[in-house]
C-alpha cells in the first residue's frame, strides 16, 4: 500500500500495536507496525515539513512524548496497548 499523498512511502502493513485516544479532542488513533518497501523523495508541506528515517532511540527523542510512546509500543512484544492522553501527556487510570 502507498501511504497517502503526504509521504509517498510504499509500505507493508503489519499488526496493530496500539490504540491511542486524545481525551481533550476525542480523536482515536489506531497504530500499526509497518515495514518500508520503497521510498521516494518527499516534498515538504504544511502537513509533513520533514520526513526522515531514524534509528529507534533517535526517533524517540525527536517527537513529542505522546507520539514517542507509540513508537516504543510498536517495538514491544506484549501489545497491543490502549493508552489515553490529553495531547500533552499520557493519562493513567
Task: Write a structural description.
The protein is of the alpha+beta class and 93 residues long. The chain has one domain. It is built from 3 helices and 5 strands. Strands 1, 2, 3, 4 and 5 form a 5-stranded mixed beta sheet that branches. Helix 2 runs antiparallel to helix 3.
Overall, the morphology is: globular
Return residue spans where pLDDT drops below 50 for at least 5 consecutive residues.
Answer: none
Order of helices and strands: EHEEHHEE
* Proportion of residues in β-strands: 35-45%
Helix content: 10-25%
Total beta strands:
5
Largest sheet: 5 strands, mixed
Domains, number? 1
Number of helices: 3
Which properties best describe this structure?
single chain, 93 residues, alpha+beta, 3 helices, 5 strands, 23% helix
Q: What's the topology here?
A:
Elements: E1 2-3, H1 4-7, E2 9-22, E3 28-38, H2 56-62, H3 65-74, E4 81-85, E5 90-91
Helix pairs in contact: 2-3
Organism: Candidatus Protofrankia californiensis
Protein name: NUDIX hydrolase
Can you give me a brief rundown of this structure?
The protein is α+β, with helices and mostly antiparallel strands. The chain has one domain (2-91).
Amino acid at each position: 500500500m502507498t501511504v497517502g499523498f503526504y509521504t509517498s512511502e510504499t509500505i507493508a502493513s503489519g499488526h496493530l500495536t496500539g490504540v491511542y485516544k486524545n481525551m481533550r479532542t476525542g480523536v482515536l488513533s489506531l497504530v500499526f507496525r509497518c515495514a518500508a518497501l520503497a521510498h521516494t523523495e518527499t516534498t515538504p508541506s504544511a502537513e509533513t515539513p520533514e520526513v526522515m528515517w531514524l534509528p529507534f532511540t533517535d526517533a524517540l527523542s525527536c517527537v513529542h512524548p505522546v507520539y514517542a510512546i507509540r513508537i516504543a509500543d510498536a517495538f514491544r512484544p506484549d501489545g497491543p496497548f490502549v493508552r489515553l492522553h490529553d495531547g500533552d501527556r499520557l493519562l493513567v487510570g
